[in-house]
Automatic annotation (TrEMBL):
Name of the protein in question: Uu.00g121120.m01.CDS01
UniProt signal peptide: 1-19
Keyword field: Signal
Organism: Anthostomella pinea
Species classification: Eukaryota, Fungi, Dikarya, Ascomycota, Pezizomycotina
Domain of life: Eukaryota
């Protein structure tokens, strides 16, 4: 009986391994997809992939839908890129940086063009730099990760002027190839 159980679970593993390449082939259409991986000296967060919980990008142990996939398009701003989430839906989802200018939260924005976060906050979504394997913002500053509930971390862009908060970690955000997707309706 024990042998049967083992064989069955092996069978299940084999099936799910096979499913991934088939899905990719179906979706092949020349759109390069990426996942965003955090690198840090902190072993708790190094190598983990950015995911969404609600509209906040971060590192989560649960409640999220797995690593996000993005594709890049040219921004109207010289040398900058926009990062849109994949799969492409009816409304555009773009990664954005929102909040008080000193410490911007990394979020998923719906139809970001013309978005006004109000209260003196800014919303940036067309100023990403995607170079040398890394994603940064086209402004002075750096990525910081802040511990959150349930061993989660939120990722923010700091221009260095925010009040000192002790428990953040400087991190880098790397982009890692995640296969090909396709444009829909474009
Ligand atoms: C996800 O967001 C919800 C609502 O803000 C929160 O209650 C929950 O703790 C978050 N989960 C994680 C893993 O951070």
């Amino acid at each position: 009986m024990k042998w049967v159980t083992n064989a069955l679970s092996l069978g299940l593993v084999a099936t799910s391994v096979l499913a991934a390449p088939l899905d990719n082939r179906q979706d092949d259409g020349g759109l390069d997809l990426y996942q965003l991986q955090v690198t840090s000296k902190n072993k708790q967060i190094d190598g983990r992939y950015l995911a969404l919980n609600g509209s906040d990008l971060g590192l989560y142990d649960g409640d999220d839908t797995g690593p996000i996939k993005v594709y890049q398009t040219d921004s109207k701003k010289e040398g900058c890129k926009e990062l849109h989430t994949y799969p492409i839906g009816i409304v555009d989802h773009s990664l954005g940086l929102v909040g008080p200018p000193a410490l911007l939260t990394f979020v998923d924005m719906v139809n970001p063009d013309g978005a006004d976060p109000g209260n003196g906050a800014v919303a940036m979504w067309d100023t990403f730099r995607v170079e040398d394997g890394k994603v940064t913002n086209d402004a002075e500053g750096q990525w910081l990760a802040f511990p959150d509930v349930k061993k989660s971390w939120k990722v923010k862009w700091s221009d260095g002027s925010s009040p000192t908060i002790d428990d953040y970690m400087p991190v880098e955000v790397a982009y890692v190839s995640a296969g090909q997707g396709r444009y829909v309706g474009k």
